[in-house]
């Protein structure tokens, strides 16, 4: 009996040990899942973006200090995009690779970025471009809410600087919630930045870039709603030669891809027509143009043509007049800003400029836009803001077609890129837009205007002298 009890006790002990062993191997509770990251809808919505008269708020754009640091990574990504911070090139590359999956990291939010100079001497136009795009998004927010989609504008300040534009572009493509980009203002910023958009398969619609290289690289992602400088330069020269009877010209440019490019096209056309080109010089000077004005005075041309931006041209023209230059002044659409009148004063009254944009008042369909813009932002719309409005709507239409094709699921970047390029007969406030095979506006309008007042508030009332509809080259 005693032996039987001992045997039973031993068996019970073995069973207890075995049970404990099983519990140690597989009986632990599952670890608690980590808390979810904040949804994209928690980021600042488009309607929270600042008005044009306000400084860009933290949480909306990369600050001037952060961008000026020169790092290829912008460390305030969370503030800029509302997404997780990208901390290394490897993480950025990894994130870019994920953009082909629908709704990656986006939830019910679709983001569209803008890139323009929001600070610095070109901010008058850059902010207005951002505002035009913002207005279009705000006006269609309810339409997309009905589809279960929240729209978010993500504005970036490229400061008209190529390195900053590229750094921002890396941040833009690193956020998989961004499905389209509206920008830039400067071709010299767009050309290097578009390599990032192309590599990441992100559609970009430009409201302002005119250098031929922008589309001639043949990137499916890159499109523009305005004309080209190889045509604009010729339009300006033909007006000078045929309409004004100019026989001699002194050409200055700002050494940028845009300014030097359009100046070169003007020069080629002038030489072909037999117009005397008495000088062709580039300068990055911003304040004292004595070294440029002295040879102009010596050459005594009938016209001075400046290829560049209003922030430089206004000062140059004012100093040239003060020092006795009597030539007719002319330039391209980089001069198309009320700031030119503010800087140049009486010196720019009577001058001519060609443009691919023209004042918003030139477009009959833009009347409501002008009213809405002034009510929303408290100032008049600058040239290129209507083009930005159309560019944003082209992005939104492409995204909406992608949503419909996917049964309501957020489209991939590749789908949006294809839909943007397929844009045909889009009826915008600046006219009809059809993209050709390389992303140019198939038929673009080129304008020549004359400045009628030194008052910046009267800029949009400049006299329209000529307009030409010209088909874009495809080769």
Give the secondary structure arrangement, pairings included.
Elements: H1 2-26, H2 64-68, H3 77-81, H4 89-97, E1 109-116, H5 123-145, E2 150-157, H6 162-173, E3 178-183, H7 187-200, E4 203-206, H8 213-216, E5 222-224, H9 229-243, E6 248-253, H10 257-273, E7 276-282, H11 290-299, E8 303-307, H12 310-322, E9 328-331, H13 338-344, E10 352-355, H14 367-377, H15 385-405, H16 413-421, E11 426-428, E12 431-433, E13 443-450, E14 463-471
Parallel strand pairs: 1-2, 1-3, 3-4, 4-5, 6-7, 6-8, 8-9, 9-10
Antiparallel strand pairs: 10-13, 11-12, 13-14
What does the model show?
The chain is an alpha/beta fold and about 475 residues long. The chain has 2 domains: about 60-80 and about 85-225 and about 365-440, Rossmann fold, CATH 3.40.50; about 230-355 and about 445-470, Rossmann fold. The protein contains 16 helices and 14 strands. A 7-stranded mixed β-sheet has the order 7-6-8-9-10-13-14, with helices on both faces. A 5-stranded parallel β-sheet has the order 2-1-3-4-5, with helices on both faces. Helix 5 (about 125-145) packs parallel to helix 15 (about 385-405), helix 6 packs parallel to helix 7 (about 185-200) and helix 12 (about 310-320) runs parallel beside helix 13 (about 340-345). The chain starts with a helix and ends with a strand. The model is unreliable at about 1-105 (pLDDT under 50).
């Amino acid at each position: 009996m005693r032996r039987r009890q001992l045997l039973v006790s031993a068996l019970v002990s073995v069973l207890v040990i075995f049970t404990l062993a099983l519990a140690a191997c597989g009986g632990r509770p599952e670890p608690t899942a980590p808390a979810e990251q904040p949804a994209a809808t928690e980021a600042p919505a488009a309607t929270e973006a600042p008005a044009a008269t306000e400084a860009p708020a933290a949480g909306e754009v990369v600050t001037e200090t952060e961008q000026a640091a020169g790092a290829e990574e912008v460390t305030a990504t969370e503030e800029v995009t509302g997404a997780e911070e990208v901390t290394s090139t490897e993480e950025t590359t990894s994130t870019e690779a994920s953009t082909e999956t629908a709704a990656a990291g986006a939830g019910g939010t679709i983001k569209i970025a803008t890139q323009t100079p929001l600070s610095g001497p070109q901010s008058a136009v850059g902010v207005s471009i951002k505002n035009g795009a913002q207005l279009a998004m705000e006006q269609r927010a309810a339409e997309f809410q009905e589809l279960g989609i929240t729209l978010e504008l993500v504005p970036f300040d490229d400061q008209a600087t190529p390195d900053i534009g590229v750094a921002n572009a890396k941040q833009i493509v690193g956020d998989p919630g961004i499905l389209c980009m509206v920008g830039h203002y400067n071709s010299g910023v767009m050309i290097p930045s578009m390599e990032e958009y192309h590599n990441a398969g992100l559609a970009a619609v430009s409201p302002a870039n005119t250098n031929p290289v922008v589309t001639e690289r043949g990137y499916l992602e890159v499109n523009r709603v305005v004309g080209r400088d190889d045509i604009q330069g010729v339009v300006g020269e033909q007006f000078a030669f045929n309409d004004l009877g100019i026989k001699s010209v002194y050409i200055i440019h700002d050494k940028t891809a845009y300014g030097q490019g359009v100046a070169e096209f003007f020069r080629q056309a002038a030489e072909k027509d037999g117009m005397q080109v008495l000088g062709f010089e580039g300068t990055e000077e911003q304040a004292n143009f004595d070294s440029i004005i002295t040879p102009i005075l010596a050459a005594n041309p009938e016209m001075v043509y400046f290829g560049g931006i209003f922030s430089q041209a206004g000062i140059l023209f004012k100093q040239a007049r003060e020092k006795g230059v009597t030539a007719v002044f002319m330039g391209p659409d980089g001069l198309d800003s009320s700031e030119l009148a503010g800087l140049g004063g009486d010196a720019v009254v009577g001058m001519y400029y060609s443009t691919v944009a023209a004042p918003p008042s030139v477009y009959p369909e833009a009347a409501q836009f002008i009213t809405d813009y002034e009510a929303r932002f408290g100032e008049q719309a600058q040239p290129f803001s209507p083009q930005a409005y159309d560019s944003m709507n082209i992005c939104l239409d492409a995204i909406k077609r992608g949503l419909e094709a996917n049964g309501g699921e957020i489209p991939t970047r590749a789908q949006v890129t294809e839909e943007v390029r397929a844009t045909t007969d889009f009826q915008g406030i600046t006219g009809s837009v059809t993209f050709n095979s390389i992303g140019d506006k198939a038929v673009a309008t080129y304008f020549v205007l004359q400045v009628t007042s030194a008052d910046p508030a009267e800029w949009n009332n400049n006299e329209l002298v000529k307009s030409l509809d010209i088909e874009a080259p495809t080769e």
